């Protein structure tokens, strides 16, 4: 209804939220949207404004699939409502997976990547964050070295999930980032994992946590346009799948 005056506001507020049949969680909202328009483009990402032809796309079904994978990975790492997943990331698709997947698993804590490592650590300490999602060491070497020195003293931190960018071939940093995660995992006092690898081990069509009672994730789209507008055939849904160009 249109809101024209205080009477209209009072009329809206007279109906309790419990009577409005609203989705019970943000995850339920996303699932409902994907069920309505599973094949509609939901998210687009490009690494450079000079390469708008190399855009990575997610349909609504694919987006929910990756959010579900992330939620299941975070739940396996120990994320709960009082042990959130913290993320220190630029604006990436993985940021969306972490926000919504973190909320589905328990809670998500956004931290400004421009803060100093000590400030980041103090925010995580106050929130009792159990997981941190951040860029791979090779993608942010100075920030990583300062951050690891601070995070080693956090009693609730169990896992660092690194974003390696390997699923974006045009980034040119995939192999170096992956290698830096493996190196960090060998030397860090805190468990270090590759976020995408962890997500690939998880189901995309249901939540493993019983915190939410929402419906299973929407069905995955069958087709997707890859960078350069090349149609691809893929074995599993979402950007973590491996695709090959369709025959012409």
Distance between the termini: 50 Å
The chain-level structural class is: alpha/beta
- Spatial sequence of strands, sheet with the most strands: 4-3-5-6-7
Instruction: Please give the count of helices.
Output: 8
Overall spatial form: globular
The Rg value, from CA coordinates, equals 20 Å
Q: Quick one: biggest sheet?
A: 5 strands, parallel
In percent, how much strand structure appears in the residues? Answer: 15-25%
Task: Name the poorly predicted regions.
Answer: 220-248
CATH architecture: 3-Layer(aba) Sandwich
Mean pLDDT: 82
- CATH class identity: Alpha Beta
CATH topology-level fold name: Rossmann fold
Series of H and E elements:
HHEEHEHEHEHEHEHEEE
Beta strand count: 10
Percent of residues in helices comes to: 25-40%
Question: What's this model, at a glance?
Answer:
This protein is α/β, with parallel strands linked by helices and 248 residues long.
Explain this structure to me?
- Helix 2 runs antiparallel to helix 3, helix 3 crosses helix 4 and helix 5 packs across helix 6.
- The chain has one domain: Rossmann fold (3-Layer(aba) Sandwich), CATH 3.40.50.
- The chain is globular and about 60 Å long.
- It is an alpha/beta fold and 248 residues long.
- The longest helix is centred in the N-terminal third of the chain and has 18 residues.
- Helix content is 37%, strand content 17%.
- A hairpin with an 8-residue loop joins strand 9 and strand 10.
- The strands form three sheets. The protein has a five-stranded parallel beta sheet, sandwiched between helices.
- It is built from eight helices and ten strands.
């Amino acid at each position: 209804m249109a809101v024209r005056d205080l009477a209209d506001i009072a009329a809206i507020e007279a109906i309790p939220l419990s009577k409005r049949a609203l989705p019970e969680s943000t995850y339920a909202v996303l699932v409902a949207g994907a069920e309505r328009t599973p094949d509609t483009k939901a998210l687009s990402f490009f690494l450079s404004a000079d390469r708008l032809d190399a855009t990575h796309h997610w349909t609504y079904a694919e987006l929910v699939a990756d959010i579900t994978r992330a939620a299941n990975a975070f739940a396996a790492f120990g994320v709960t409502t009082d042990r959130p997943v913290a993320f220190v990331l630029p604006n990436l698709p993985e940021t969306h997976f972490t926000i919504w997947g973190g909320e589905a698993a328990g809670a998500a804590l956004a931290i400004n990547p421009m803060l100093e490592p000590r400030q980041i650590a103090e925010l995580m300490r106050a929130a009792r964050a159990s997981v941190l999602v951040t860029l791979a060491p090779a993608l942010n070497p100075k920030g990583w070295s300062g951050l690891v020195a601070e995070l080693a003293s956090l009693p609730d931190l169990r896992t660092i999930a690194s974003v390696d960018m390997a699923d974006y071939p045009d980034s040119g940093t995939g192999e170096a980032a992956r290698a830096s995660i493996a190196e960090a995992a060998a030397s860090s006092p805190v468990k270090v994992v590759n976020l995408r690898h962890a997500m690939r081990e998880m189901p995309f069509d249901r939540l493993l946590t019983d915190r939410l009672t929402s419906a299973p994730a929407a069905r995955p789209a069958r087709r997707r346009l890859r960078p350069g507008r090349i149609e691809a055939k893929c074995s599993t849904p979402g950007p973590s799948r491996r695709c090959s160009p369709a025959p012409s």
